[in-house]
Amino acid sequence: MFEFKGIEQINLKLDKMRSLSDTEVYEKLAISTNIVADEARKVCPVRTGELKRSIHATNPVKKPHGYEASVRAEKFYAIYVELGTRFFAPRAFMRRGMRNAIAKIKEVFSRLRLL
After folding, report:
1. What DSSP state is assigned to residue 4?
2. Is the separation of the CB atoms in 37 and 105 below 8 Å?
3. CA atoms of 81 and 34, how far apart (whole Å)
4. pLDDT for 31-65, tens place per residue?
């Protein structure tokens, strides 16, 4: 079972975000996803370089609930490298890339005085 802490603070920040223009949100989200992709590429294990080259960020897309964007590794074996198998240990390049990007993403959004 999961326990979430700080939901109230998150809701306050989300209320502030609702007041932003679509252009501001789109730009900050695009910058953030590119930061995550760059960080994931930095820590990606490399044998041939194909996995590293397959990491990319999608452009934000407006959905009814807000914007959506993602960072993906398109090689079929990316999930096996990320999570491991019974034959080899995980090498979590996507999760490490996200963790490494958090400070930079906070900096991007702090310019909007949200965080």
Report:
1. -
2. no
3. 21
4. 999 999 999 999 999 999 999 999 999 999 988 88
Residue (of 69, 66, 56, 62) closest to 29 by Cα position: 69
The residues pairing with 66 across neighbouring beta strands, listed in sequence order, are: 63
Apex CA 40: angle with CA 39 and CA 41, to 5°? 90
Helix axes 22-43, 93-110, angle to 10 degrees: 140
- Residue 62 DSSP SS3: strand
In angstroms, the CA 68 to CA 66 distance is 7
Local structure of 56: helix, strand or coil: strand
80 SS3 class: helix
